[in-house]
Amino acid sequence: MTTIALIGQPNCGKSTLFNQIAGYKSLAANFPGATVTYTKGTTYIDNELVEVIDLPGTYSLSWYDDAEKETVKALFSMDIDVIVNIIDASMLIRSVELTIELMSLEKPMVVALNMMDEASKKGIEIDVQKLEDILGIKVVPIVAKKGKGIKELLASIKQAKKPRKRCVYKKEAEEKITDLSKCMAENLKDTQWPLKLLSIKAIEGFEPCEKAVMETSCAEMLTKIKKDLDDGMVIINQRHALCMNIFEQSSQVKKTRKKSVESYFDDILMHPIFGYIAMIAIFAGIFYTVFQGGVPIENLVMGLFGDIDSYLSLVIHNQLAFLIAKGAVDGIGAATGIALPYLLPFLFIISFLEDVGYLPRIAYLMDSTMHKMGIHGTSVIPFVAGYGCSVPAIMATRILKSKKEKYITAFLASIVPCSARTTVIMGLAGYFLGYWYVIGLYAFNLLVVLISGMILKKLLPGISPEMIIDIPPYRLPSIKTLLLKTWQKVKDFVYLAVPMLIIGSVILTLISYYHLDIYINDIFKPILHDFLGLPSALGVVLIFGILKKELTLIMLYQALGLSSIAMVSSVMTHTQMLTFTVFVIFYIPCVATIAAINREIGIKGSVFITVGTTVLALVIAYMTKIIFLAL
Amino acid sequence: MRLTEAETNKTYRVVAIEGGCHAKDRLIKLGLLPGVEIQVKRKAPLRGPFMVTLNDSDIVIGRGIASKIEVRPVV
Asked: Using beta carbons and an 8 Å cutoff, which residues of B are at the interface with A?
């Protein structure tokens, strides 16, 4: 099977193109680095099945973060037949840098020139034919968002040729590069890097490449070449000059006097004062809408499942069979009661913010605050994602550069209340104590995040390099893309959480049927009852909460032996409810999150975060108890 | 002078970039390299980052990185 790889710089519309070609499986976001793992898909070109791989965006083949490293590794290790290089027409100079690097791989290649509409908005008109002639590669203009030019692109992929050889650098530099790659050919046998590219990167001082050369007998040669070529600046400048030249020859720029839409929006959204006000207003608005709108839907869903329960009690007469059926129904009810009213709308809005291009602007605003926690503005993406679900939040730490930054961000993102924990906040604190408590809990959570971050910054060794981030233009995403993206995010919840909820709910019913809960609760009694002053029946609830936080609320009233959530106030005091809510917000991340942490920052990190959050939860919950009992 | 001392909405030419290898590489990839003209569009408050405009795009860079970029005003 023919394999084609889509490669482009972040934000060039690569994932959108992938969705157009291979059917709605890849994520697109107007945030640099949205695709953190590569996605595979298949499509037909003239009745022939081809495999399409969407690689994370990369500015060049010398990586800066783990997401880019992934791309380069995949590119070299996979058997790729055709490279499709997607170029953002409105940023031609920068994009062509990557194109030139890709050309040195000497594989059949096609350039997809995307976002021509944005280019012309900027006053840039590109002569496609001329660009094609200069590059020596087939160039196909497309509008990925609208699916324009896709047919032509697929046809050209089939006939893709290797790029015509061309000299990128001046004779002197070119000779030196050739010398070094010849030397490396004799000395280095085991590498996936094309030797010419390896040599260029080594001269430019890209660490992994430089190291590879320095370990061979070509080390001396490299040192000399670097000295001759001003530490590689000579070739960097020559390549940049070539890119400028390509741009000037193929494009005409009309200076538009008109102030762009971006600057109008940015004048407010990135304003030193109004920017923050706007940001707080936007997020407050989102939470208010989602949860105000969500409560009636949740009640409706819960009512419906309550009716099913009472129907079951009439139909099934065997006590055990009834309990199992009720457990299963309640599990589905809990899942629907969270996903439908809260998770779905929230993820939809987050997708919208991503695609519109607002998130990098928050990164700019929040950078200096983030510095106090030893991280940078870039970390806002995991944080914001964390309010939906912790798993994608942890996955997003891949766009961060240093280990320290990843560690801190993963820790903090996992104590941000996800939508499952939000239902506990809403269901307990919101329902019984009032909405001011909900706002208070969110503000308190942010305060804990800030303080924890400041402590972690001191505790963890290492430095965090600073932020360099691309500010994309505002883009209006299509509803179709947004829905697909929301589905992509909600899918994990449906496939992983729903079975877990049903099984968990059934097991809990069985545990109480056979009176096993007494033993479990006895183990946790010293902590829950004696230390936090909570009913010891909650031990089981918290254990299941580790499996899935969504279970917490429904299991709470089941474990207390109540028929509905509204009766909780008859057995729990307000202080107990608040203590319990606080504990649930901060304690151990759910199993899926722990697995994600394990994958992103290793076993040590996941143990550290699990233990750390538990200690944090115990301390804060205890303080809550003491303070509110004193009031 | 350093980019940190630059005034907003004035044009400067990059003279040199010192400092961390990686940051330098990324800056070059984004088109910020010696010889290029740039403008500081915005500065975030509280010692926050800088938003600079290059020939075809806007990028945000941390203040620490900005302090390592040597610029000269274009007259």
From this structure: 20-23, 25-31, 33-35, 42, 44-49, 51, 55-65
CATH number of A2-158: 3.40.50.300
With contact defined as beta carbons under 8 Å apart, do B7 and B72 qualify? no
The number of folded domains in chain B is 1
The token duo for A124 is 């840039």
| Answer CATH for A171-253 from 1.10.287, 1.20.120, 3.30.420, 3.10.20 | 1.10.287
> If you ran DSSP here, which 8-state letter would residue A148 be given?
B
Amino acid identity, residue A435? Y
CA distance A64 to chain B (A): 7
Phi, psi of A122 (to 5 degrees): -80, -5
pLDDT in tens, A23-46: 644 444 444 444 446 677 777 887
What stretches in chain A show pLDDT beneath 70? Answer: 23-38, 165-166, 256-259, 492-493, 496-497, 500-501
Q: Which residues of B touch A237 (CB under 8 A)?
A: 33-35
Are the Cβ atoms of B29 and A97 closer than 8 angstroms? yes
The answer to whether the CB atoms of A467 and B49 lie below 8 A apart is: yes
Q: Closest by alpha carbon to A225, among A234, A216, A236, A237?
A: A234
Whether the predicted interface score ipTM is above 0.90: yes
* Chain A residues close to B55, C-beta within 8 Å: 93
Residues in B closer than 8 angstroms to A464, CB to CB, are: none
Model pTM score: 0.82
